[in-house]
């Protein structure tokens, strides 16, 4: 009989960087340049939390390393599985709204482009598959109640 082997669970943290936390209009997307199997896919900037690292501190570190920016984080955007967004069998992601407080976002590491997506065009890039639902949720939360018909 085979016993099921526990799947290692790695937490990824990512930021939905927008122009305004109260009334988000533009969303930052970053295009991956590595590894080859992910290159060309667009994602929310971020990365894996190191062992023992606080998730929020990991996110600030990743955004500094990858984009050269300092951010202020807003609310977390909870996902459907214990507040997380499932990526693969072994990866799950937590996402926070964010605004840049210092620096100009640039593709310094792991990305070859960053793009600011205009209102209504947040789905216009080829997001990594797991990000499509995240972006749908972001869009729904960004739209003020008065705009929902
Ligand atoms: N940062 C980020 N990663 C995502 C998103 N969607 C998604 O499927 N992923 C996947 C891609 C990667 O397999 C994994 C994140 O790993 P990473 O390569 O960005 O992590 P890292 O910068 O810490 O790099 P490393 O330690 O693996 O070298 O999560 C997303 O929106 N943002």
TrEMBL record:
Name of the top EC class for this enzyme: hydrolase
Acyltransferase among keywords: no
Catalytic activity: 8-oxo-dGTP + H2O = 8-oxo-dGMP + diphosphate + H(+)
Record keyword DNA damage present: yes
Pfam families: NUDIX
Keyword field: DNA damage, DNA repair, DNA replication, Hydrolase, Magnesium, Metal-binding, Mutator protein
EC number, UniProt record: 3.6.1.55
Recorded superkingdom: Bacteria
InterPro entries in alphabetical order: MutT-like, Nudix_hydrolase, NUDIX_hydrolase-like_dom_sf, NUDIX_hydrolase_CS, NUDIX_hydrolase_dom
Any GO molecular function: 8-oxo-dGDP phosphatase activity
UniProt family annotation: Belongs to the Nudix hydrolase family.
Designated name of the protein: 8-oxo-dGTP diphosphatase
């Amino acid at each position: 009989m085979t016993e099921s082997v526990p799947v290692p669970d790695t937490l990824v943290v990512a930021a939905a960087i927008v122009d305004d936390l109260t009334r988000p209009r533009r969303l930052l997307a970053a295009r991956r340049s590595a590894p080859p199997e992910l290159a060309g896919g667009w994602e929310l900037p971020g990365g894996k939390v190191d062992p023992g690292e606080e998730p929020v501190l990991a996110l600030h570190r990743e955004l500094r390393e990858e984009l050269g920016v300092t951010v202020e984080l807003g609310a977390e955007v909870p996902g459907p599985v214990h507040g997380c967004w499932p990526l693969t069998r072994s990866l799950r992601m937590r996402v926070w709204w964010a605004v840049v407080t210092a620096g100009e976002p640039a593709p310094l590491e792991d990305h070859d482009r960053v793009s600011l997506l205009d209102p209504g065009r947040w789905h216009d890039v080829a997001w990594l598959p797991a990000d499509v639902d995240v972006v749908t949720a972001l869009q729904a939360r960004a739209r003020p109640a008065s705009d929902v018909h």
